[in-house]
Amino acid sequence: MDLKDKLKIYDRRGTEKPPAPQGTLTAIGAEPVPHTSGTIWRFTTAYTASDIVSAPGIRCCPLSIESFCKFNTTGLAPDVERLLFLDLETTSLSIGAGNYPFLTGIGYFKNGDFIIEQFFMEDYAAEAAILEYLLPYFERSLAIVTFNGKSFDIPLLKSRYRINAVPRFPVEMPVIDLVYPCRRVFKRTLPSCSLKSMEENVLGTPRPDDIPGWLIPDVFFSYQKYGETDRLPAVIVHNRLDVFSMCQILVLMNSIYAAVDAREYRRMERNALLSIARHLCRKHAAAFIDVMEFIGNDMYRERFLFKNYCAALKRAGRLEDMLRFLKRDMSLYALEELAKHYEHREKKFSRAREYSQMAITLLDDGYFSPRMEPLAPHHRAMYRERFFRRMTRLTRRINASG
Fold first, then answer.
1. Are residues 134 and 195 in the same domain?
2. Which residues, other chains included, contact 2 with Cβ-Cβ below 8 Å and sequence gap of 6+?
């Protein structure tokens, strides 16, 4: 179907299909929901707690997100029954006015089960009714959970509420976009942190018969034009599994951060722990220091973590630990920090000059550290200028002190 054929569905002057008989959608599992603006078609599925934790790696109660909230600074009360999971299937990949969410999947916890409701837009005129029907779900929730929804699903949904003049959508509601914590943990271990990659490589739940995402709009266009429903169940399943996978991923992420909170680092893959450490260093100093001390010598190969570990020790008042750590490294960074410490904090100018001279010797050899780490030419010039300036100042201060 080319673009011209697709655009014909917007021309409502007699070329569109007649309304499909109600039995058609009922036959594939939909139920009609009466609404003041017309009938809404809904698909409903319930998953138990055991269904949720059936994926490998999930080791905690599905009704807890306390550790996830603690380490991801959501600012939310850890109440899973006040979360609303959301995924849209749309007529295109843009967020412009011509893009319609023809299938809206939501998920929420109720009495220990995870309920998924999917609302199918049988006709364009039904869109406003669906948006109105969804409002109570949003209003009773603390946050919306999506996967890459901050850049697509949420802006599109807000746009559709404005276009249809449906008021009361909570535009300022917090959004937990799971793609970001997934990247923080798994970007070192997976080639991609897409939902499909997370399902296949982390949850262990591949979808061999899944309908390709690029084909989904065509299924809706075919339904609109010809009343075709043969491929519609595949889209319903695709959307339902997207919502369910988000639930499992959130529970999995909570399990990972619960292990961090309990200092059960041996349960975690090494690269994943290094990635988490990069996240912790910004706002969870105590946990970051603890993780780094477990990582041990690996931190010498992770210069970003190395520098932040030194800074964290300094902020925690553990100066002696910081100095011992720097002296084991003796890289240009460590030598500069040692020179700073002895010049400014202890006023031992000769000691500071010794460390500066060691750095200049290392620069002459062309290395960043005694382990022969390579040094880029522009970094070499930068460090050389800084250390020579420091040497000049220290020599002057030593001479002035007698």
1. yes
2. none
Does one domain contain both 124 and 216?
Answer: yes
Q: Which domain holds residue 118?
A: 3-261
In 164-231, where does DSSP find H-type helix? Answer: 179-186, 195-198, 216-226
In a domain, 323, yes or no: no
If you write DSSP's letter for every residue of 36-94 in order, what string do you get? Answer: TTEEEEEEEEEE-HHHHTTSTT--S-TT--HHHHHHTT--S---GGGEEEEEEEESSSS
By DSSP bridging, strand 38-47 and strand 143-146 are unpaired
Domain count, the chain: 3
Please indicate, yes or no, if residue 14 is contained in any of the structural domains.
Answer: yes
Query: For position 257, which CATH number holds?
Result: 3.30.420.10
Same-domain check for residues 356 and 242: no
- 114 with 14, same domain: the answer is yes
Strands 113-120 and 101-110: antiparallel
Instruction: Identify whether residues 335 and 366 lie together within a single domain.
Output: yes
In this structure, the answer to whether residues 228 and 349 fall within a common structural domain is no
Its pTM stands at 0.85
Q: What strands, in cross-sheet order, belong to the sheet with 38-47?
A: 31-35, 38-47, 113-120, 101-110, 83-90, 143-146, 175-177
Is residue 208, in this structure, part of any structural domain at all? yes
Question: Does residue 324 lie in a domain region?
Answer: no
CA–CA distance, 240 with 244 (Å, rounded to integer): 6
Nearest-angstrom CA–CA distance, 74 and 61: 20
Per residue in 5-60, pLDDT (tens digit) is 555 544 544 445 555 555 689 999 999 998 887 789 999 999 998 899 888 767 66
HSE of 230, CA atoms in CB hemisphere, 13 A: 4
Query: Would you tell me the crossing angle of helices 303-315 and 270-283 to the nearest 10 degrees?
Result: 40
- Cβ atoms of 129 and 40 within 8 Å: the answer is yes
Pair 366, 375: CB distance under 8 Å: yes
Q: For residue range 137-177, what is the model confidence (pLDDT) as tens digits? A: 999 999 999 999 999 999 999 999 999 999 999 999 999 99
Backbone angles phi, psi at 161, to 5 degrees: -65, -40
